[in-house]
Design brief:
Length: 83
């Protein structure tokens, strides 16, 4: 095989590679466009909201547990009606 043929084959392969690369880029852009992506800022805001919500939930759970314990203690001290 001559050097000219090799050069031509190399150019053809590079062109095909460029076409394939371009097609892959286009397909990737379409696929990424369909994903439900959010900005880093929006992600950070939602993370902060979630953290505050978790903290609030923990406080409410603690209050409910305290109330349940108080109710259980009161039920122990108060005899049922009719006794």
């Amino acid at each position: 095989m001559s050097a000219d043929k090799l050069q031509e084959l190399l150019r053809e392969l590079q062109q095909q590679g460029a076409v394939v690369t371009s097609d892959l880029r286009d397909a990737l852009a379409v696929a990424l466009g369909r994903l439900p992506l959010v900005s880093q800022r929006e992600f950070d805001i939602q993370s902060e909201i979630l953290q505050r919500t978790r903290e609030k939930l923990a406080r409410v759970e603690a209050q409910v547990e305290s109330l349940e314990q108080a109710l259980a203690e009161q039920e122990k001290r108060t005899p049922p009606p009719g006794d």
